[in-house]
Write a structure and sequence with these properties.
binds tryptophanyl-5'AMP; single chain; 3-stranded parallel sheet; Rossmann fold; 2 domains; Tyrosyl-Transfer RNA Synthetase
Length: 327
Amino acid sequence: MKRVFSGVQPTGNIHLGNYLGALVQFPELQQDNECLYCIVDEHAITVPQDPKELKKHILDVAALYIAVGIDPKKSIVFVQSEVSAHAELGWILICASNTGELFRMTQFKAKSHGKESVGTGLLTYPALMAADILLYDTDIVPVGNDQKQHIELTRDLAIRVNNKYGKTFVVPDGRFLKAGARIMALDDPTAKMSKSAVNEMSRISLLDEPSKIKKAIMRATTDSEGSVRFDMENKPGISNLMNIYSAFSGKSLEDIEKDYEGHGYGDFKKDLVELTVDGLAPIKAHYEEIRYSDELVRTLHEGAERADAIAQKTMKRVREKFGLGLE
Ligand code: TYM
C-alpha cells in the first residue's frame, strides 16, 4: 500500500481549479492507498487572516473534503495545526534548505513582486509544505500544476537529508491530472483561477448557485474565431473551457472537438453550464448535510490522533538522525 498526502488551505472560495486539479483525485486514491488529507491552516497564516473567519474556513474545507467523497473511515482527515510535528519538522527543514532555492520559487516571486518587504512565512512556506509531506513517508502527492516546483523542492530536501544523515525520508512523487492540472481564470485565461482574484466571475466556487455558474461560463473570455478547437497558446479561453468540459465529462479533447464541429461557442458553453451544475450539485447537497454536524468535529479530532501517531514515529527518527535532544 502506498501512502498519499495532500492539503488545501482554508482560505475560502474553494474553486473549480482546486477541485479539478486536486480534490477530484482524493476519493479515487483512497481505494488502494493509505491517504491523509489535511486542512493546512498553518499555511494560511503566511498572509494576514481574520481568526474567526479562519476557524470557519477550516470546517468549510473539512466538510468539502467529505462532500467530494473522502471517506473518513478509509482516509485520515485532519487539521495541520492539531498535529504539532508539522511545525517542528517545518523548522528542521527550513534549516536544511537554503535561501537561494526559496527565493527562486515562482509563487514567492509572484507574491513578493514589487514589494519592499513581505512576511517571512511566504519565503519559508515551501519548507513547511515539505514537512507536511515527508512527515508521513508519503509516496504520492495529488496536486495541481502550480505545486510542481514545491514538490521538486520537497524531493530535493528529502534527498539532501538522506545523503547527509542516511535514509531518513521517503522521496515522494507529485500526481497531476491531464485535464484539471491547471484551470485558468474565466475572465482572463492567461492567469490561473485563484481564490484571491477580485472579479467573482473569474472563478466558479464549489458552492456557487447554478445562476452564478451560468453567468460566469456564458461570460467567459473566448476568441473571435468561433470554432471549438484546443490550442492553449492561441485560443487559451476556449481551451480552458474544454479542459473543464473534459474533466467533468471524461471525454477526450479530440472527441469534444468532433462533437462540436460546426457549432459555435454558445452551444458549447450551454452544455458546459449543464455539466458543471450537474457535477457540483451532489457535492453541494452533501456539504450542506455535513458542515454543521457534530460528526465533522469528531472526525477531525480522530484524524489528528491517527496522524499524530504516524508523525511521532517519523519525528523520533528525525531527531535521532539530526542529533537533537538528549542521548
Ligand atoms: P492551495 O490551497 O492553493 O490549492 C489546493 C490545491 O488546488 C490546486 N489548485 C489548482 N489546480 C488546478 N488549477 C488551478 N487554477 C488551481 N489552483 C489551485 C493546488 O495545486 C492544490 O493542489 N501549498 C498548497 C497546500 C499544501 C499542500 C501541502 C499540498 C500545503 N502542504 C502538502 C500538498 C501537499 C496550496 O497552497 O494549495
